[in-house]
Predict the 3D structure of the following.
Amino acid sequence: MARLTNWELPVNKETLNRIVQFLLDAKKSAEFMRLENGVIDVAEVFSLERLRELLANPLLTPEWLQLTLEGRILDLRQSVGFKVVQDKKLFFLDKDLLNQALAKRAAVVLEGLDLMDSALAYLVTNLEQTMPCSMSNCEAFFSRSGNEAYNGHRDSDDVLVIQIAGTKRWRVHQPQQRRYLNNAPLTDSMMGPIAGQFELNPGDIMFLKAGVPHKCTTVTDHSLHLSFDLIDRTLSIEQITKAANAHYNNATAEPHAPVSAVIDKYIDYLTSDRFKTEIEKASADQKREAALYRQKFTDASKMPNLNLKK
């Protein structure tokens, strides 16, 4: 069997357990954020060198990257080229724009690390097992002093952060209503009262609940942190109402019924045992499907077995 590199091995058990337990404790807490300093061995999780390796992949497409310089997102679509081989186009990412921007101290967000890196895929799999139904995303935030990837914003899902290199200053504001729309960009006045300010250094881990406005600043020359978006994949309101609408359309209120009667009939079905059973089954099906896709994501970064004869 081929020897696996460090990045193809799972995160060691001690580090994994520490991260998972931190998340469990944070989610049980009534506080909107939780922070522990210097408790993670970052060498077991990620590094600047690993980021460079992943950015060197010529098969990256612009969808994987956000490149920000002086507050402006650079369009990487112009950097996609191709080589023709046997009448087929092999697409690649020309790195000139990326390298030029990095030389000017641009910030980079690299998405989908849980697809690229089997150690992070293993970690995300274990994080998801602590939640009812999640399809989480792991991304790397690399920034330079004076160049940040994002301005003030809030997230629609809970976030777990591990600082890998450099120092990042966080300014968090009092929690607001969780929402899917109009989360960014936020001005200082839109973010509301400041709840606190602190710095993350290598080995620090933080949990931030959905709906908490925040803004980050790179204190040192550069900063690298991993962000785990703990995306909620339980049934959405759109899925629930779609199922309810399908039933209502087969058993509607009487013609010209007052709006209140229409609403009452709709609510009767939403609160019925039949509908609750139907939704519980749909929820279980969705959870199984999410688990299957997570396995596909994990397998995507595994080294294939060539089944060679000895």
About this structure: The first strand starts at residue 33 and ends at 36.
